[in-house]
Amino acid sequence: MLKFKKNGIFSRSASEEATASELQEGGVVAVWGSPGSGKTTMAVKIAKYLADKKRNVVLLLCDMTAPMLPCICPASELECERSLGSVLAAAHVTENLVKNNLITHKRLGYLTILGMLKGENEYTYPPYGEAQARELIDCLREIAPYVVIDCGSYIANDILSAVALMEADSVLRLANADLKSISYLSSQLPLLKDAKWDTDKQYKIAANVKPQQAGEQIGQALGNVAFILPHSEELEAQFLAGILLSDLTMKESRSFRKEIEQVCREVFSC
After folding, report:
1. What's the CA gap between 66 and 120, in Å, rounded?
2. Which of 32, 34, 47, 186 has its CA 20 to 30 A from that of 41?
3. Confidence of residue 210 (pLDDT cuts 50, 70, 90)
4. pLDDT exceeding 90 applies to what percent of the chain?
5. 3: pLDDT confidence band, cut at 50, 70 and 90?
6. What phi and psi values does residue 149 have, to the nearest 5 degrees?
7. How would DSSP label each residue in 127-181?
8. Superkingdom of the source (predicted)?
9. Which comes out higher in pLDDT, residue 110 or 199?
10. Which domains are assigned to the chain?
11. DSSP of 90-106, one letter per residue?
């Protein structure tokens, strides 16, 4: 049986009542956007911010084509390696099944992670359907007050990411201020015109904005945006090294850290 860390996500007894602040805060946020816009980076940094604030948070990594779990931290930092594929392969997704497949982090006791392992892909496990995807997200709501979902870009063929966008309380929609991102949005946004996609819960975010990109240029490319994530060389180096759960300590990353804090205050009321 899995033994979770002291003060970790499952350390509280079922009889303990949530505080008033916990009842008011939290929710499910889905991070989605154009390829290369920094979806995983933002999702991980949001999850880390919450864990650092001693908020119990689950990070769900949806990508089955290029598993992101090996890209966010070294395997040595994880208590165990279990797979999202094992959860979705079940006929019915239960809370116990999800708990037994969550991965805990050795240093961040308030964070647990669920994703595909290195070398796996969508054909490693039996196919799953919309029912399992919905059951998974429902279970995550029961397990932790904060759920951060890193969605894949191409939702037409990604059931889990598509369901996450529908079921999430808030959606962070990332794009770079460049022609590729604009072309991507023109291609994908018509898929979100149906009534089941609640556009009111979506926050448009300009990602990886470099100093030479003026606000006017961003506005022309992406329209009005709720948040602007500035480029950070330290953050880029962490991504390339696969250590996104590390702290951002350099002065040039200060603006990015402040923006993540503002995003969390807005979408989670924390």
Report:
1. 8
2. 186
3. confident
4. 65
5. very low
6. -115, 120
7. ---HHHHHHHHHHHHHH-SEEEEE--S-GGG-HHHHHHHHH-SEEEEEE-SSHHH
8. Bacteria
9. 110
10. 32-268 (3.40.50.300)
11. SSS--HHHHHHH-EEBS
Predicted model pTM: 0.87
205: enclosing H helix or E strand: strand 202-209
Amino acid at 137: I
Tokens of 73: 């931290």
Quick one: tokens of 239? 């991504």
Looking at the chain, how many residues does it have? 270
Per-residue pLDDT tens for 122-139?
Answer: 899 999 999 999 999 999
Of all residues in the chain, what percent are helix, strand and coil, respectively (each to 5)? 45, 15, 40
Q: What does the DSSP 8-state code read for residue 78? A: B
Q: What is the mean pLDDT of residues 39-54?
A: 97
Q: Are 148 and 46 in contact (CB under 8 A)?
A: yes
